[in-house]
Specification:
Elements lengths: L8 H40 L2 H16 L5 H32 L8 E4 H11 L1 H7 L3 E4 L5 E4 L1 H18 L5 E8 L2 E8 L32 H11 L3 E6 L5 E8 L8
Parallel strand pairs: 2-4
Antiparallel strand pairs: 1-3, 4-5, 5-7, 6-7
The structure holds adenosine-5'-diphosphate and magnesium ion.
């Protein structure tokens, strides 16, 4: 914008500076609104999409029930699968809640004694159907027990994100989940044999709404999973890094204090 020539030079300079600041703030706001719009669009897609297979499974169940084709064992198996799909759906919706809790500073850890090895085995078990569907086998290498004090749901959230990413971005290949104790720390990792992540993308994928892949049906996602993971890991005073896995693929490694309450005020 051209300023009136009559303005004294110092006033003109400060008016220009104010205008520049205003332009900068508008650019930030435009970006924030665009990010929010994308988020809403992807969220709507993500929440509607998993409903299609659930409805499909219910229809199949009804048709087979009406035809009297199910034994009680088959019926139980079907209902359990639908139950599993619903749990998965609720978790995806939970990610949205986490995003809003973290953004507004209302995310709080609930610490309790917990066995990480147990939790890892359970989580891998919960992924059995999804992994089979993608042609992945999920191996687990953990000690018998790995006790510590953590937020169980937060740990589940971390693992769900890392394992579902491995299955999503490295289909038809093996995934390995491992864990070990390191003195006062614990370390666990999720390794896949997929395309890997370029060095240039490694920091960016932990940012909100950042994705290293193009948007496609199979790779649909919020682009917030790793951001949520990074925030939760930081809240637990830990670190997360991504490296090349030996022989190709990515390995995400999380290191956490074992007994967090000892460090809290
Ligand atoms: N195991 C993986 N292998 C390859 N790329 C990955 C892997 N995990 C994450 N990424 C990349 O990091 C991006 C961010 O991941 P994430 O935050 O979970 O979002 P989303 O999965 O919704 O895209 C992904 O879009 C993908 O490009
Ligand atoms: Mg993801």
């Amino acid at each position: 914008m051209n300023l009136p020539e009559a303005l004294p030079p110092e006033a003109a300079t400060s008016a220009e500076a104010a205008l520049e600041e205003l332009r900068r703030q508008i650019a930030v706001l435009i970006e924030a609104v665009a990010a929010r719009d994308t988020f809403i669009a992807v969220a709507a897609h993500e929440l509607r999409n998993p409903m299609t297979p659930i409805i499909g499974q219910i229809d199949l169940l009804l048709a087979n029930l009406q035809a009297g084709r199910y034994s009680s064992a088959q019926l139980e198996h079907r209902v359990r699968r639908i139950r599993g799909a619903m749990d998965h759906f609720i978790k995806r919706a939970g990610t949205l809640l986490d995003v809003s809790r973290i953004t507004s500073g209302r995310f709080q850890l609930v610490l309790a004694p917990c066995d990480l090895s147990d939790l890892l085995r359970e989580t891998v078990e919960n992924f059995a159907d999804t992994a089979r569907f993608s042609g992945c086998s999920v191996e687990i290498e953990v000690p018998e027990n790995l006790y510590g004090t953590w937020d169980r749901l937060a740990l589940e959230q971390i693992l769900d994100n890392l394992i579902s990413n491995a299955i999503k971005y490295a289909p038809s290949r093996p995934v390995t989940v491992s864990a070990e104790a390191l003195g006062s720390l614990v370390r666990f990792s999720v390794r896949d044999c997929g395309p890997g992540i370029s060095t240039g993308d490694r920091a960016r994928i932990f940012e909100r709404f950042e994705r290293a892949v193009g948007t496609s049906e199979r790779h649909s996602g919020f682009g917030v999973g790793l951001w949520v993971v990074g925030q939760i890991v930081a809240a637990m005073e830990g670190t997360i890094v991504v490296d090349d896995a030996e022989g190709g693929g990515s390995v995400f490694t999380v290191t956490l204090p074992r007994y967090l309450e000892a460090k809290l005020p």
